Amino acid sequence: MIASEVDLDGLxxxxxxxxxxxxxxxAHARGGHLGGPLSAADILAALYFEVxxxxxxxxxxxxxxxxxxxxxxxxxxxxAAMAERGYFPVEELMTFDGLDSRLQGHPxxxxxxxxxxxxxxxxxxxSAGVGMALxxxxxxxxxxxxxxxxxxxxxxxxxxxxxxVAQRYALDNLxxxxxxxxxxxxxxxxxxxxxxxxxxxDDAMRDRWAxxxxxxxxxxxxxxxxxxxxxxxxxxxxxxxxxxxxxxxxGKGVSFMEGDYRWHSRxxxxxxxxxxxxxxxxxxxxxxxxxx
Amino acid sequence: xxxxxxxxxxxxxxxxxxxxxxxxxxxxxxxxxxGSSTGVQQLEQSHPDRFFQMGIAEQNQLGAAAGMAxxxxxxxxxxxxxxxxxxxxxxxxxxxxxxxxxxxxTGGYTGLLTGMTGKTHQMFNDVAIMRTLPNMTVLxxxxxxxxxxxxxxxxxxxxxxxxxxxxEASPILFGPDYTFxxxxxxxxxxxxxxxxxxxxxxxxxxxxxxxxxxxxxxSVAVLHMPTIKPLDVAALVDEAARTGRVIVVEExxxxxxxxxxxxxxxxxxxxxxxxxxxxxxxxxxSGPNEALLDRFRLSAPFLAEDIExxxxxxxxxxxxxxxxx
Lengths: 292, 325
Hints:
CATH architecture of chain A: 3-Layer(aba) Sandwich
Strand order of the largest sheet of chain B: 2-1-3-4-6-5-10
Helix content of chain B: 40-55%
Strand content of chain B: 15-25%
Number of domains of chain A: 1
Number of strands of chain A: 7
Number of strands of chain B: 12
Shape of chain B: globular
Strand order of the largest sheet of chain A: 1-2-3-7-6
Order of helices and strands of chain A: HHEHHEHEEEHEHEHH
CATH topology of the largest domain in chain B: Rossmann fold
Largest sheet of chain B: 7 strands, mixed
Helix content of chain A: 25-40%
Number of domains of chain B: 2
Structural class of chain B: alpha/beta
Largest interface: A-B, 36 and 30 residues
Radius of gyration of chain B: 20 Å
Structural class of chain A: alpha/beta
Oligomer: heterodimer
Mean pLDDT of chain B: 95
Number of helices of chain A: 9
Order of helices and strands of chain B: HEHHEHEHHEHEHEEEHEEHEHEHH
């Protein structure tokens, strides 16, 4: 569906709730990642509440669209999206990273119904996605496979092995989303400024995928209408695979986490958590001065 | 009696995969640009919709196989052992073994005889590495008869599987009535002085060595282990109890492979002296096949010599400690 026919405010609120769950779960677990989950939240809301053809009450539905979170360390945001969508109770999010939890620190498809792939070793999710897209062809299925990678993840050579093969087989049933939040764990130090440099400049990222023969779309990864339209447009591309380069902000939604690479995997203090929850509270609650 | 000559395992495996493709709609092949070497090239033409050329990129090849398995297919990966296991180990561990996906990895050119390619291609560690993966079945058939059946068993049994496939023609060990079963050892010969445990094509050389030893008055049993994981510990313990001495022979490093598996099992279940013959913690080199087998003492005459010296040294030691001797 095109964005003009979609309840965009509803999707934006889903994204807000995903962020809130992520911050709460990571604070509770005293471990996990935050920067990446927060940058990916809007895209995950768009996928799970609008774009993906899925049946949460029938997670193994053979015709379902596939989603692979190749940047598996951002899984708390995926779990939150799935819980909000009805795959499992929202309360279970607080078991994240705990012993015996189905919500492992990196996704485990054998534990949690609805996860299409186990991930966690960067770069490999795209290979799995290529296999799913090829497999759909062999099995005569019409589903689309969506794979989300990070821009830091694109350092991994296997991403480009997979990109090459996807183009060779003209996998137009495969869509990659690059969550281009411009930061990785430590990043590359800029020798002149001493600042942290992003993994790839915008044109460098665009040129890489284009050179591999992919249809390249770019979008502001926090503009819900644009995200929905870009994902649908990417799905509709024919004759070759498509990539949506989503320009995002690492830590998006929590002011003091935004753009700070140290929040890749930092756990908030009690004060930081309280401050984050205020920023991620329901707009009405903020207006009423409620501190949730 | 020497064994009848046979064909290369890779040829038999390629034919067996073609048979399985024809009869099982789930089977697909992913080649890592070595199909002309591993025996699956014929499928490129006979089954173009089921043959996928993945290029020289093993990490992606193994990862894509995992993705295909999630859709209900049974992907057979055609690659060299050194690159499938060596380069793509992370794909295998994270995408195939952890989620217990039914990907069938054929590791070609395993061991010493790799067509003069030398150290990079001679993989001596694939069994040792793969058997540490919790969900992996590890197979090493000895001849074309067993290899054909192993391909079928591997495809029909759910879960991840790794199968060694050697390059060179090797003798026929099994008759047409042989039945291969995953996880079952095969006692090829009974004996009283020791049990030689072996796997893969190396078993054919062990059988020949056993005959040479018989002529020298030594009686050795030969226990063939076509499945290294799960190991047939019951058969192993039975033999250890019967002969009281085990010598493991493999065309692999003596560290961690079948020798490691046997030593671990016997140390806990039925301790007896265990010796290991194989590649002695070193790399290989290029050279003609027969010369390589002699250099690394894996040909029947050298094996017979080494086994004899182990057994006679054992006799001297026990004679030396016998009171009053």
